[in-house]
Amino acid sequence: MRHIRFILLPLVLAVTWPLAGQDPPAVTSGDEATDELLARERIRASVEAILEEYMQGEPDGEVVVAKAIVAAESFAALGPDVAPYLINELEQERPGLFDLCAYSLGMLATPDAEMALRDAAARADDEPGSEALTRKAWALWGLALQGRVDALRLTVEGRHRTFDYAMHHRTSLLEAVAFLTAPASVPVLLDLLDVFASDAERYRERRAVLDALRRVGDSSAAPRILPLLEHANPAVRGNAASALRSMGTPEVIAALVLVLDDEHRIVRQNAAAALEYIGASGQQKKILERLDRETDIYARRSLYRLLADTAGSEAFALLNRYAGRVDRSMATGPRSAIRLPAPAWQTIRTKKPRFSCTIPIPYTHKFSI
Q1: I need a labelling partner for 255 at 20 to 30 A (CA). Which of 72, 236, 278, 337 fits?
Q2: Positive or negative CA dihedral for 80, 82, 85, 90?
């Protein structure tokens, strides 16, 4: 009798449905429906197993990066059919699991996943508190993983401005979103920069935007940043100098060399650090002139390293000019810019015994004599 019903049902639909002026719905056979149900159950069981493994033995609400990556990759391996289960978990807003589900939905990049992430960000923005801020940040991170560049503006809007939320070590949410959505993020960042550069009360947003532009490193943004090197606010000048370190065009290098004469030491420090990162071939004379006048030990350290990196075989002789200068920090002396065997330093040994050995420091440049 059951088999007769399965045979008659398509015939009845074929006769009655066109009377309503519509196409008949697709009919799923019993075997197909069973297979679909079994597939859904397998996915559900897999999702539960992944979540249980992820949370097992960990403090409630704590995000463990290594385990989160494994779990997210496991979800991705299940394909787009896993999205409804992750969306359901996302809507429950459980600490720890919300972050994982937002990240995983970002990797899936399906329309349903995008809508769920946008809804989650909007719900979080309607609620006060740090937990809501965290949920909004992770929802926007998921949108960035999908390449949705409007997530940039969402970080600086609403109740919770999540632009400076720390997503990774020394990386803000705005930087992460900008990097993930580049190069489409560059014009959006520049528009935001125009807004925040003239708003003294939103200095944190301005700094975050400049940091994001530095992180992206698109030299097409340099012409819009260079005028900020002459801004009345020294903080703006310093942030702009730092942002330009990843945009080493000849115009940028020339502008940063001029900024080495800025009256504020923080601005000079950032300009010197940017030049150290970029390199300034052909600018040795101006660098030496600045070293003769520079009193800030951190700016001097970057300039020593810059000379060691760009002066080639002449670096030893150039740095030897400053061998007798004792700075307040051992790590900022000229010998810290290059690594040499200890005997080689006998020729430029200072009067201080502590300077008689080689000083290894981060970003040490190779040098041979």
Answers
A1: 337
A2: negative
d(CA 145, CA 158): 21
d(CA 242, CA 234): 12
Q: Can you give the pTM of this predicted structure?
A: 0.76
CA atoms in the 13 A half-sphere facing the CB of 66: 1
The answer on pLDDT for 18 being more than 60 is no
Tell me the per-residue pLDDT of 166-217, one tens digit each, with 9 for 90 and over: 987 778 999 999 999 999 999 999 999 999 987 888 999 999 999 999 999 9
Query: Exposure of 211 by Cβ count < 10 A (0-12 exposed, 13-18 middle, 19+ buried)?
Result: buried
Work out the widest C-alpha separation in the chain, in whole angstroms: 105
Q: Is 171 helix (H, G, I), strand (E, B) or coil?
A: strand
Q: How far apart are CA 24 and CA 3, in angstroms?
A: 21
Stretch 104-113: mean pLDDT, rounded?
92
Summarize pLDDT for 290-348 with one digit per residue, the tens: 888 888 989 988 888 888 877 666 777 777 777 666 565 444 455 555 544 333 333 33
In terms of Cα–Cα distance, which of 309, 296, 318 is closest to 339? 309
| Distance between CA atoms of residues 272 and 304, nearest Å | 10
CB-based contact 295:260 (threshold 8 Å): no
Q: Closest Cα partner for 76 from 56, 103, 99?
A: 103
C-alpha to C-alpha distance for 230 and 216, rounded to whole angstroms: 23
How distant, in Å, are the alpha carbons of 92, 276, 326, 327 from that of 304? 56, 9, 13, 12
- What's the distance, CA 6 to chain centroid? 56
Contacts 24+ apart (CB under 8 A), 309-316: 309/276, 309/279, 309/365, 310/279, 310/280, 310/281, 310/283, 310/284, 311/284, 314/284, 315/367, 316/367, 316/369
Rounded distance, CA 140 to CA 87, Å?
A: 15
